Amino acid sequence: MATRRLLIVDDDASFREVISFSLTEAGYTVDAVADGASALDLFRRRRHPEIITDLKMPVMDGMALVERVNTIAPGTPVIVITAFSEIETAVAAMKAGAFDFIPKPCDRDHLKIVVDRAFEHARLTVENAVLKRASASEGKEIIYRSAAMETVVGVADRIAESDSTVLITGESGTGKELIARRIHRRSSRADGPFIAVNCAAIPADLIESELFGHRKGAFTGAIRDAKGKFELAYGGTIFLDEVADLPPALQPRLLRVLQEKAIDVIGGEEPVPVDVRVIAATNRDLAKLVDEGRFRIDLFYRLNVIVLHLPPLRERIDDILPLAEHFLRLYAPHRSFTIDTAARQRLCNYRWPGNIRELENICQRIALLADGGVVPINLLPDETPTADSLTAVSAAGHIQLPPGGISLTEVERELIEQALEKSGGNKAQAARLLRIPRHVLLYRLEQYGITGKGQNEKG
Predict the structure, then answer these.
(1) Helix crossing, 438-448 with 427-434: angle to 10°?
(2) How many CA atoms are closer than 13 Å to the CA of 56, on its beta-carbon side?
(3) Measured torsion, CA atoms of residues 126, 128, 129, 131, in degrees rounded to the nearest 10
(4) What does pTM read for this prediction?
(5) How far is the C-alpha of 174 from the C-alpha of 183, rounded, in Å?
(6) Tally of CB atoms within 10 A around 275
(7) Which end of the chain has fewer CB atoms surrounding its CB within 10 Å, N or C?
């Protein structure tokens, strides 16, 4: 572990002084308090990698402390110290989540061995978590050759070490989460968690609990304590994607987190400190939403500290072929594809409304359907999607396929935009007009990078 700091909890002042001195001599940084309640308060603020506690104490005993620590930060090693007559209680504490126990009076060498072993256990736990996260992100490289992306990545790397809030803007599918993950990996928080939240994908009645957590009994169905995303991201980074879709009632709550580094858990009695870096992202114009009264201006300025704008793929022509080659290798690792002149021209001339996500999907389709080693032109999108695709729909409402064919993607996109315009931006009403479930519409909006039109963003 980077910090060899531990917390000692015992109501016997002389005993605290003795073992604090022994462990300080052994190279540890020691905090010491007299009861479980004080320990819990200090632990919430500092998150010690290891705790040593007596079992019998006033205010809050060691057993209760073990359980609370295990709830706040599962996996934190807690060593209990007990008299020989309380061995059964110590065993019960281990069943409740304690790492080990040491009988009183403590042998100095034995104490150091157990403490060292607990720190090694904690180090391996963190290391395994980092390796799992690295493994999960394999294949998610940032591939670029364009000057525009070189500038973006350069700025991202320079700001990684700071703890400043970052706002990433750009159309849907441009790689905003990849940039956020790169910032996290290159920061001092790299060993901590990276928690991604899509604010547009969580129902409005659940998002408060998802972000801030709740206590048992806070509302109907709250049968146990549940941590929110901010608590889960403690010591790391939280990525708030589509932050513009955060309900107005929750915007002050996010502002409070940014200002005071604390959250109000639903049903909780006091604020809970959180140590997280916030990276937000949106494909919408936040300044315009502020002018329209749909986004808080003070929250906007809190988020707008460092802004990274990701250009759309159509403005990054130099990146199209490297990205295509990367995705083809990713989805067809045992085959070698050639992108001939005609395919190159088609790829570079296409407008890519779905940006990198659309290119990745097409490459995956090629890997599955192409017979030979040359990228077939028929599996690539049309070079110039028609702007008047809906002329294919007759006045009678029947679909008529033009002789030269038509882009189904563009037809679907324009129908969605018309439904949103007709419904004044009400997504639920637009979904009813299109006769599809609301969640399907939300998926299509994200897929095509469409934002709701009009003032009404309900539903």
Answers:
(1) 100
(2) 7
(3) 120
(4) 0.61
(5) 16
(6) 17
(7) N
364-to-7, 29, 140, 306, 359 alpha-carbon distances in Å: 52, 52, 14, 34, 9
pLDDT of 201: 87
Residues in the chain: 459
Encoded amino acid at 234, one letter:
Y
What is the dihedral sign for C-alpha 223, 225, 228, 233?
Answer: negative
Q: Cβ distance 215 to 225 under 8 Å?
A: yes
Read off the amino acid at residue 319. Answer: D
Domains of the chain: 5-134 (3.40.50.2300), 147-309 (3.40.50.300), 313-379 (1.10.8.60), 390-448 (1.10.10.60)
Residue among 278, 276, 282 at smallest CA distance from 305: 278
Over residues 300-358, the pLDDT tens digits come to 999 999 999 999 999 999 999 999 999 999 888 888 899 999 999 999 989 898 999 99
Q: Are 392 and 399 in contact (CB under 8 A)?
A: yes
What is the average per-residue pLDDT within 102-124?
84
